[in-house]
Amino acid sequence: MNILLIGGGGREHALAWKISQSPQLSQLYIAPGNPGTAQCGTNIDIKTSDFEALGQFALQRKVDIVVVGPEDPLANGIVDYFASIDELQQIPLIGPSQGGARLESSKDFAKSFMMKYGVPTARYATFGKNEVEQGFAFLSKLKAPYVLKADGLAAGKGVIISENLDEAKTTLNEMLQGKFGKASSKVVIEEYLEGIEVSVFVLTDGTTYKLLPEAKDYKRIDDGDEGPNTGGMGAVSPVPFADKEFMQKVCTRIIEPTLAGLNSEEIPYKGFIFFGLMNCSGEPYVIEYNVRMGDPETEAVMTRLNADLIDLFKGVALGKLHECSCEISPLTAVTVVAVSGGYPGEYESGKIVKTNLILDNSSQLFHAGTKIDAEGKLVTAGGRVFALTALANSIDEAQTKAYQALEQISFDGKYYRHDIGNDLKCQNCRNQEPRQLRRLE
């Protein structure tokens, strides 16, 4: 089969790596891809926003399935575009329609959807530009800290936690006045949930679903969950506290009502759903939906997926996902992200990458922000540069392997956290009261 994968980050490299292992694969194209995805298939210089060029390429190369990696093309209607062109209608896409993508592109829609279909989530209210005073009144009814979210996509920066009421009011006013552009023309104010986070992923054909490995990611830049928020500094899978009892609650209270709601609303949905959850003393609550895989969680999840990804995608396309096998490895994956110095603030790109890395089958290096320069050298090209994933029998062993491998890669300003997974290593982790975390994503 010929597969077109849309995207160019670490998530897409992990997906490309997994797709390339399928015996059903004839050609894998990645648009635009990166130097890492070039090791798995053929990179195509087409922007993720150029739907017409992507469609024409898919026709010319007789693409059988299109896999959409990032959220922006989905939110902007790439699935609907393909469905609107007669010649493209025959090509299935892995990703929801624009209506389904609203689960991520509009936090107000997602919250109202959850409330309507009984999906556990925090109490909330939404306010527009002319409703500042009403927003102040709602904030006054809540206890600190206060959670304020831009309604639309804001590149992962649209959520602010305010520690006191005056600060929250100021933040609300700034957001409604355009702090995040159109994304904050409406602001969702939520009750703060105390607990520990876990990311749960499913692949669905719109009716049935396959549960993928769960993961825990680490958003803060510094050890001990200190410093500014980032796109993600690492991930661990599996998550000790996400045991059979907890995951059964997730399936019956969250995943299945979500799919039932999508069907009730007649919203076509064929693709991934990412459930950002908070474990509040053993009870799962939804913080957010994403309509694609997470990053860097994908770099951990894909290494534990003992399944033919193309076979799963075919099951999605044909509405026969329930017939597909989806085994999960019992091994532990630890992913550590290496970033450019200064990230998530200002940082320099174009730093030459040097490596003495020799990996076995239990470790993988995924490119996130790299490129080949005019002289043919591998250089940095983003804030998050690499994600190194190691598989082993325990978090300790996987950590050791990941950090030893990461030491074999160098570039000016290289930085990474040294504590990814430390908080999950306690023997009684699943029985402990979750510690308080400030969600800034």
Q: How would you characterize this protein structure?
A:
The chain contains twelve helices and 26 strands. It has 441 residues and is of the alpha+beta class. It folds into three domains: 2-97, Rossmann fold; 124-190, Dna Ligase, domain 1 (2-Layer Sandwich), CATH 3.30.1490.20; 196-431, 2-Layer Sandwich (D-amino Acid Aminotransferase, Chain A, domain 1), CATH 3.30.470.20. It has a five-stranded parallel sheet. The longest helix has 21 residues, at 244-264. The protein is globular and about 55 Å long. The model is unreliable at 430-441 (pLDDT under 50).
Task: List its traits.
27% strand; five-stranded antiparallel sheet; globular; 26 strands; 3 domains; D-amino Acid Aminotransferase, Chain A, domain 1; disordered C terminus; five-stranded parallel sheet; Dna Ligase, domain 1; 441 residues; Rossmann fold; alpha+beta
Task: Characterize the main sheet.
Answer: 5 strands, parallel
Output the CATH topology of the largest domain.
D-amino Acid Aminotransferase, Chain A, domain 1
Globally, the shape reads: globular
Number of domains: 3
How would the blueprint of this fold be written?
Layout: E1 2-7, H1 10-19, E2 27-32, E3 42-43, H2 51-60, E4 65-68, H3 71-75, H4 78-84, E5 93-94, H5 98-105, H6 107-116, E6 124-128, H7 132-141, E7 146-150, E8 159-162, H8 165-179, E9 186-190, E10 196-204, E11 209-211, E12 216-217, E13 220-222, E14 226-229, E15 234-237, H9 244-264, E16 271-280, E17 283-290, H10 297-304, E18 305-306, H11 309-318, E19 327-328, E20 332-339, E21 354-355, E22 363-367, E23 370-372, E24 378-380, E25 384-392, H12 395-406, E26 409-410
Parallel strand pairs: 1-2, 1-4, 2-3, 4-5
Antiparallel strand pairs: 6-9, 7-8, 7-9, 10-11, 10-16, 12-15, 13-14, 15-20, 16-17, 18-19, 20-25, 21-26, 22-25, 23-24
Helix pairs in contact: 1-10, 5-6, 7-8
